[in-house]
Fold this protein.
Amino acid sequence: MEKRGKGDPEIGAAHAGRDGNDRFGVAVAPGELRIVQDLLNTASIRRAGGDVPDLLDAPDAAARWLDAYGIAGDSPGLSDLRTLRDAIRRSLVERDHSPDRDDDARPADVESVVRIRFEADGTVKFVPDSVGIPALGQRVLLAIYDAQLTGTWRRLKLCRNPLCAVAFWDNSRNTSGVWHDVRTCGNVANLRKSRARRGRPGRNLPTSKPD
């Protein structure tokens, strides 16, 4: 039997790392998109209770995250992986939150090379053409490509709460979810809007103190 080593791009999504997703307790995307989501959730997140650190920043945290994907922590390419992650996150913000952003703020293009393989069953597949971190980056891009073909890419989103921005899987029937958790981020946003409405002149609250 073939033994899988470090940097093996074929490690199944169900058995790969999940540190990014686990620390936020989010609904997990299916199949290979779970790896994309896990990568997105390695980013540093601003939160009211204190910032959540970048898992790919500190060497120990990065090594632990990469090890779950069969990649040695000292493998080259970590900076490129962070660039890919940040580009995907910016593209999701532009797609779902800010469609009218300036061109200067648009995500940069990220390129990679993959192989096309003809399988014994007659199917044609794109497969990573590298090992280690570059192979993981290619796997992420291939998962996004497949999801765009099937129409499921629109269900992977970033929470609309600017103090959260966690990547979550939208299970709603009409793909209308905007919060990773309506009980927390959703309620906070609704309360903020309610207070803003009550504080407007001429509405429920007085505009000046009575004599």
Summary: The helical segments are 19-22, 33-40, 59-67, 78-96, 132-150, 182-198. The longest helix spans residues 78-96.
